[in-house]
Design brief:
Blueprint lengths: L3 E3 L9 H10 L4 E4 L4 H13 L3 E6 L13 H20 L3 E4 L12 H16 L3 E5 L5 H9 L6 E6 H6 L7 H4 L3 E5 L21 H11 L5 E3 L14 H20 L2
Parallel strand pairs: 1-8, 2-3, 3-4, 4-5, 5-6, 6-7
């Protein structure tokens, strides 16, 4: 039976130990988070180890990701930030870093200097034994470029975000294109509008029967990782942490049964 996971910051203002104890109680075995300072990450790792939860991935910052494609110094600063995040993976014993290739409604086009910077990032990650899982956003061209250009590089892989697929690129399916490169998932729901709501699966319009079918066809045996945000939708305003986390666990287990047939 495959593992289920949930991100560490799905519900606001819950102390790490209370949060991690609760998700362990509900049967989650793995998680991921965004980067923090090294001391905070080390403390998180200590608590995760205490409760037997692995940190599967570290999600790279994406606020400056569009700068990677630009010709000025902002691009070098963005590259430095990403390399520093690769270094942080070691603190959590996470061997995968999830990376965006662009952000927003009007991201820059592919440029040669951007390709060179991403190549430098990939080479750096290889030296640190960290695999880069590139995540689907609003564009196909940059994801297709990195998947094709590094098709024989095991350190370059795919993170499938089925929520982004539903709200950012309705009608597109990334798994038939890149499912053979899949090493991690981001699973969440929304109403199919451009708003990225990060709702609990089965609460929105995402077709999870189809998502389960695509996962089965891919042969992917890794975890089913929820990427939720209680504050991104007003649907959960009245739910306590205990109620919200139970609903999330029930959804994750339901999807696992659909994928694994158990």
């Amino acid at each position: 039976m495959r593992k289920i996971g949930i991100n560490l910051d799905a519900y606001p203002n819950i102390p790490d130990e209370e949060y991690i104890a609760r998700i362990a109680e509900l049967g989650f075995e793995t998680t991921f988070c965004m980067p923090q300072d090294d001391e905070a990450l080390a403390k998180r790792k200590e608590i995760l180890d205490q409760y037997g939860i692995t940190c599967e991935t570290l999600h790279a910052p994406f606020g400056r990701i569009n700068d990677m494609w630009r010709s000025d110094a902002r691009g070098e600063n963005a590259l430095t930030e990403l390399k520093e995040t690769v270094d942080k993976c070691a603190i959590l014993d996470a061997h995968i870093m999830v990376v965006h290739l662009s952000s927003g409604l009007t991201p820059p086009t592919l440029t040669e200097i951007g390709r060179m910077r991403f190549d430098a990032l990939i080479q750096y990650a290889m030296r640190k034994n960290v695999r880069l899982a590139f995540e689907n956003q609003r564009r196909l061209d940059n994801l297709a470029w990195v998947m094709e250009n590094y098709k024989d590089n095991p350190y370059v892989a795919f993170c499938w975000d089925c929520g982004h697929e539903n709200c950012f690129t309705p009608g597109w399916e990334f798994m038939p294109l890149f499912g053979n490169r899949l090493i991690c998932t981001h699973i969440h729901d929304n109403m199919g509008t451009p708003k990225d709501e990060h709702m609990i699966p089965f609460d929105g319009s995402n077709d999870f029967a189809r998502k389960a079918e695509l996962l089965k066809k891919s042969g992917f045996e890794g975890s089913l990782m929820l990427e939720l945000s209680r504050n991104s939708s007003d649907r959960y305003t009245d739910l306590s942490w205990e109620e919200y986390s139970q609903r999330a666990a029930d959804a994750a287990k339901k999807l696992r049964a659909m994928v694994d047939g158990e």
